[in-house]
Design goal:
Length: 575
Amino acid sequence: MGKSLVINIREKPCLQTLLIFLCWAFSTVVCAALPVVPIAQDFTKLEQFQMGYFVDNTGQMSFSNVQQSDFTESPNSISLGTKAKTTWIQIRLKNTSQFPKTIFLHHPYAYHNRAVGLYEVVNNTLVRERYLDMDDKSTQEWMYRGSAVFDVDLQPNQTKTLFVQSLSFSHQWLALNLYNEEKSKRALLGQYTDIALLVGMLLALIIYNVLLFLSSRLKEHFYYSCYLISGGFWIALSYGLLADLFDVFGSVTLKWHLTLVSMPIFLLLFMINIFETKKKYPIEHWALMSVLIMLIIDFVYGLFDIVTALRYSSILAGLMMIVSLSVTVSMMIRKHPIAPFFLMAHGLFIAFSTLALLFYVGKAEFNYINSHGVGIGIVLEALALSLIIAYRIKNLETIKASQDELKLLASTDPMTRLYNRRYFNAEAELLLRQAVLRQQPATIVLLDIDHFKKVNDTYGHSAGDNVIIRVANTLTDQCRKQDILARYGGEEFIIFMTNTPVNQALPLMENIRRTLEQESVETGYDETIHFTVSAGIAEVDLGNPNLKNSINQADKALYQAKGFGRNQSKIYENK
């Protein structure tokens, strides 16, 4: 049976010394594994360098224990997902110049954190510490326009290790940059210009669609406006524009993230409306309504427990994307004209949001497209969905134009393009009421082509039609814009003269009659047709206004004109 070998280190001083040396050497190797960032005399900025990170899964480790932990080397911009809420960053700096230097450490995404701490260590000794709590205003002196900015002093040839503690509410992602004083100020000035541009584009669409809704009262414009408002607010909140403009951050903004839930709610309502699923597609309507109800429940729940609600919102957002995409494909198969536009718009949103989702869970590299994917997707989807709005407006304009054309056909005489008797009676009644209300005189003129039957019998109905058209064109040219002119019968025309007493109507009518007397129409047999008209004029009795009576009086005056030899105008006289 073999004999076990047990060595008591305390009894072997040489082994004890060797073990201590090996531990020290191992510790040195681990620390040395992280590269030193040199700060030269001409240093201006560093936006790409190597650092190390360590995740404290307990969230309770002391700083001394963190110092002894193993840090994983990484770029200065990282995304670690939802399981790294307490993360430590280690940056080793060395002032390689012979002069003291002050540099500025920027954490540009600090606004989405719960807290940020900075610990400065020289020769394993903590020389300075600062703790920035987003909910404690007394600690926010290092917070500038949404960014955490810490000044760090370096003595000549000094090596200093920085430990940055980043505490997130949910997702851990950060980027740390180093600047001199001038570059630090410049970095803060233009930090959120791109986000302001995205929000500005959405704001323009919001104003346009609100105006469209107010003018048309169409629900689709209302839902689309609410979708844009939710998306624009979330972009401003999540990408730091609100923190930059209004210094709002920390737990107070947590519930504002419910706009991430309200956004798909309004998008689904927009889909239900534009695809008219309630009336035409019951299965698709049921699918959209099911997701819509779950989102509404999650939104209401978020008013009481925002953290849990946002956790479920990610699942619901994924379900919403699947259902909405499936419904859109179904609409494509049914050849719905709007489906291609919606598929393009929603496809852009899903593609960029997928990149962002991979970034947030730490599965995609830190770059601008990935970190801002949701915002870019929202804006691109909003712009593409505006094509649907434009298509719908064009469609409505086409329908309106068709309706206007039908109304025009129903209210006009097809031969002369003048208003017909039905339209004249309706408009004249309206003008008559206005005349009575304003106590303004009004006159009815009825005129008829003289010996028109003879024209038809002699030259044919085609020539007679040409005479009617010539009279109509001349009347159109001679009548005032304020008057209503209509073809009242076969060869009979009627004029409602507004704000015109009978003594003014007579010279106006005589001028028209004399003009028509000079007109002629050529036939197809080298013959010329000359014609005249007779007219009857009657002033409306404002004390007892009655359009039918006034027309009858004008008709009686017309017969008087014909009886006195035609080609003349007569005023109605009540005898």
